[in-house]
Amino acid sequence: MIEKITDVKLNVRPVFIGLVHQYYYEGPCRFGKGEELEKDYDVFMNSELYHQFQKDVAENMPLDAVNMMEPIYVERDDWFLTDEDMFRTMAKDIDQVDYYLFSFGIGRGDIYLEFAQRYHKPQGVMPAQCCEATVNTSAVRARGLEAYAYRSWEELGRHMRVLRARKALASTRVMVVTRFNSSRSFSSSDNLVDLNYVTEKFGVQFRYQNFHELMDMLTVRDPKTNPTLPGREACNLTEEDMKEVERLADELIAGAKEVRMEREMLEKSLKGYVLVQKLLDRNGCNAYTMPCPDCCSTRRLNHDQLTFCLTHSLNNENQVPSSCEMDINSVLAMAIMENLSDKAVYMGNSNPVLYRDGKMVTMQGFGQDQLAAATSERDDLYLVFHSTPNRKLHGYKEASKAEYSLAPFANDQGFGATIRYDFTQDAGQEVTLLRISPDAKKLFAAKGTILAGSGAERTNCDEGFFMKIANQEDFFYKHINFGNHLVVTYGDYIKELQLLGESLGLEVVTA
Questions:
Q1: Mutual orientation of helices 39-60 and 153-170 as an angle, nearest 10°?
Q2: Could you give a single Gene Ontology term from the biological process aspect (predicted)?
Q3: CA within 13 Å, CB half, 479
């Protein structure tokens, strides 16, 4: 079973630190009148505040993103002693905790600080607590440790989703299909430079699958007879798998506005998708990429009459980050965005719309005719295109009303199923665009607005959309430091990406 990154939850432990004054007195460390200065009043108020803390947590934490662990109550008295049992209590099951949420007041910040120094766990102060947020967050951060504070429960909830995305990224295991090498394809020299650094930095693991072995497994036969693995029991498709291929074909055809390819060719591409699911499970992976030109030049895709475009589309629909062209940068960006947004993402070649003699400079299959048909806008435009859109761009849980067609990738022979999606149906949709720099030290986080789609009626990679951005010059001269493909997510997630960059120690470049 594939362990999907969208199933990851952040384990949060609430901790309340009470303070009980043992004697009647007032002064700079204690305020009140009459019974408010008695020990029994402190005991009562600690109980009330603890219950309110539990209530606030239950009502405000995003339970779709976090798993709330049992709250812990500890207290000290006005001797201000530091008790070892207190730390043992707070550190219960610490290996299972991702984040500690504290509630406390004056005279307890030293405990918060020492907890951070001892255990090096992410921790924060609940919203709207007088003074403690600034006092103690600065104290912990000054020591190079991770601490947070918030003005509201809404901000805290957003940050929980961000830290959940960080955890999901660390649980990402990418199955990389290889031919020539394991770090880049012949169309992705902008790939991550050092995958070992990426593993150390983010926790992502990479596992490799030989392309020729994969192609042999597409055939339903005795799995010990594959030419690349003679005598070994491979992971070939079975007759039962072919029933799933037929079921998926029925579903896709039934939902399509138009089908411009033979069912046989659709099923050949679906064989690729079903096999990839088996191999992801076998390799313990939950993300996928493969090198398009490297594999294409073997002529095996042509021979077997399939491409893996539809595999990428369906993977992303099913919460498995999946990128074209062995673009590992995009796989990781997908892992981040699909977890942050709970939506499937799109990726594409991304270029500024440029003009010569008043007409658009042609970019692959997009030129003046396509621009004129799409929009009357001319300033600050960008073009994003690839043949891997999907039906869950508005959300995994949303009942999709979007129209799509099915068409081949290959012009002459009609093979290689692709989902054709007219982005004009989403005109006006704000999108967030993300890419990780090749050195894995920066994030490019940008915004745009879809103006119109183009290419849904064509074949191969010629489908995508024109979008409006704030400033094309600014966007482009930042974009060139990160690489070609941009991962597109519906909605505005710039704030979340800024917070994620902070938590990962990455510079965030916005446009």
A1: 60
A2: monosaccharide metabolic process
A3: 23
Contact indicator for 215, 235 with CB cutoff of 8 Å: no
Q: Which residues of 255-291 are buried (b: 16+ CB within 10 A; e: fewer)?
A: ebeeeebeeebbbbbbbbbbbbbbbbeebebbbbbbb
Q: What angle do CA 245, 274, 243 make, to 5 degrees?
A: 30
CA distance 395 to 344: 6
- Backbone φ, ψ for residue 359 (5° rounding): -120, 150
User: Can you tell me the distance from the alpha carbon of 96 to that of 162, in angstroms, rounded to the nearest whole number?
Assistant: 18
The residue out of 167, 195, 217 marking a domain boundary is: 167
SS3 259: strand
pTM of the model: 0.95
pLDDT in tens, 259-312: 999 999 999 999 999 999 999 999 999 999 999 999 989 999 999 999 999 999
What are the two backbone dihedrals, phi and then psi, of residue 187, each rounded to the nearest 5 degrees? -125, 10
- Calculate what percentage of the chain has a pLDDT beyond 70: 100
Give which of 383, 399, 499, 358 is closest to 450, Cα–Cα.
Answer: 383
Using N-to-C axis directions, what is the helix angle for 263-283 and 239-255, rounded to 10°? 120
Closest CA to 416 of 295, 313, 303, 269: 269
Q: Which domain holds residue 132?
A: 5-167
Total number of domains constituting the chain: 2
Cβ(261)–Cβ(241) below 8 Å: no
Instruction: Please tell me the least confidently modeled range out of 29-43, 190-204, 224-238.
Output: 29-43
Distance CA 117, CA 477 (A): 42
CATH number, domain containing residue 159: 3.40.50
pLDDT at 31: 86
